[in-house]
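Researcher: Last one for today. Full complex below.
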Amino acid sequence: MVRFDDVGLRYAGPSGLGPQGPAPEVLRDVSFTLPQGSFHWLLGPSGAGKSSLLGLMHLALRPSRGEVEVLGQRLSQLRRGALPALRRRIGVVYQDFRLLPHLTVFDNVALPMRVAGRGEAQLRADVAEMLRWTGLAEKAGALPATLSGGEQQRVALARAVVMRPALLVADEPTGNLDGVQARRVLALLREMHRLGTTVVVATHAEALVAEHPAPALRMDEGRLVAHG
Amino acid sequence: MAEPSRLATPRLRRSRGRDPLGLRRALSDRLLPALVAAMALLAALALAGARGAAELTARWEAGAAAAMTVQLPPSAATGGRLERALAALDAMPEVAEARVMDGARMQALLRPWLGEAPAVSLPLVIELRLAELPASPEVLAGRIGAAVPGGTVESHGVWVARLVALARSLQAVALAALVLVAGIAAAVVAVAVRAGIAARRSAIALLHDLGATDADIAGRFGQRAGLLVGTGALLGTLLAVPVLAGFADLAAPLLGSQPAPSLAALPWASLPWAELALLPLLGAALGWVTAQVTVRRWLRRLP
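Model: Here's the assembly. Have a good evening.
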């Protein structure tokens, strides 16, 4: 479950101030609850605050005010040292993939498992399964630079789900892909939802949303303007 | 379908997989070890300098304790004058031991000037070992002169004390240089690690997002920095060894030895091998700790 309660977020320097006085809030008074195992679209124009909202969900950001609860953990009550364990239960798909260019496809997908301290023998089978699931088994030894955009995004998706996360957030996962590749990635996200993962997908692609109707959070100018 | 674990370059792939931050390229294996090697060389010289100065201090202090002599005319050998002088000197708390220099030793000492059979009668010489180095050798010499009427007190303790003070100063300067070199090495490692962080900023952020702990990320930097600094320190120490052997040979006369006639005869055994062996280990520890502190401090800015 993900719960936001009257959340505000402002990006500020260490002093708490921006370059011209107090930094403005990029998220204001955001409140919603996503049940465990749900699928939600996150919609809104550029600059609406979608990425900031996802950043709070996958613990890359902490709220300036209000309460964020992720997978039953209230962030306000968690010490910084407890966050890595929670992050390992969350998968993230970035719009720009964020693959490590010096690692092969296999090693990029294996990264979360190595971070979690899994043994090589165990992760080998899991990564191989993920690569088969995303249709990338033949590319296991390739470097990201040799892959197409769609393949890179599927690698990023495989990396996001290899730990079987309870929460999967995707920030414009189809933004750099053509229609065929976008549908393929979305099918994989829907498959994760079918397996019980809570999935939140931020997108501009209204056509894709129309093809796959699901509840949506709609953001505008840092506020949640519609939920449902 | 290819089995991922049986690809054409599994060893290369596995080694890259163990270095997700790409630190083998981000923390160069050339510049940092070279800089550290130069500093380890300086540290080894400073270390050996400190130890050499300590040895000189001990030797000169010991020399000073035995450096006072009282000369009596040859006639003092009869009539109990010598015995009275020895008794008076033994009674002085500053004197640990007073003994008459035997004739054979005195002849050996004077042989370069007087030949095998001196034509002149030699004075009686009482050697004094002092309980401790006097604060004022001149005052002590005056008191001894008063206790042994007719005796001539010879004291080069003033110069010895000054040399001891100089050697102690050299020792302190060498240790200060050692601390300074360690500080500069730590600063160099910190700069290199910061450059590595800047080069791998996005990869660090990704690992952080994937749930890596600060200890994990800092540990990767620490391992790499420790390895590079340890390697550099080892190279610098190895370079220092022949230099130190040469210096030890130059200093041999000051320590009562003779300069070596050949390279093989250099005073290798006199080098501070235990301290030199510790330098690479201490260097590795310095690199590890500096990298850990630098990275952990940087990571605190992440949520």
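The two ends of chain A are 16 Å apart (CA to CA). Chain A has a mean pLDDT of 90.
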